[in-house]
Amino acid sequence: MNIPVPEPGLVIRYVYLWKREAEAGHDEGSKDRPCAVVLAFEDKTRRRVLVLPITHSMPQPPQVGIEIPQSLGKRLALDAARSWVIVSEAKSLLVARTRFASNL
To answer: How far apart (Å, rounded) are the C-alpha atoms in residues 88 and 97?
Structure first.
């Protein structure tokens, strides 16, 4: 399966483990959700990617989020419901270079 090279601006699907879920003892997220790639860099064998979760739930303190305009949500193939990108927590992922569609 060809996977696009993760780069800032790309929205991916990921089973995101929220901080509150991890603190409750979970080791895996409860569902697959869109996440925004905000940083990506590589070494010889893998790429490190920093993602922010996207949710329909309005951020509640101490969360901080930015509402995604509907026009942008449509371009990102999100559904029509209101969505926020949560900027107060992030995940760092390691992805093997061999999984990408193009040769880095």
So the answer is: 28
> Which residue intervals of the chain are DSSP H helices?
19-23, 70-75
Tell me which residue has tokens 């569609």: 101
Q: Which tokens hold the place of 37?
A: 């790639």
pLDDT in tens, 63-98: 999 999 999 999 999 999 999 999 999 999 998 766
Rounded-to-integer distance, Cα 36 and Cα 64, Å: 15
Domain boundary assignment for the chain: 11-99
Distances (CA, A) of 77 to 5, 42, 71: 18, 27, 10
Distance from C-alpha of 95 to C-alpha of 101, rounded to nearest angstrom: 13
In degrees, rounded to 5, the angle at the alpha carbon of residue 29 between the alpha carbons of residues 56 and 99 is: 100
pTM of structure: 0.88
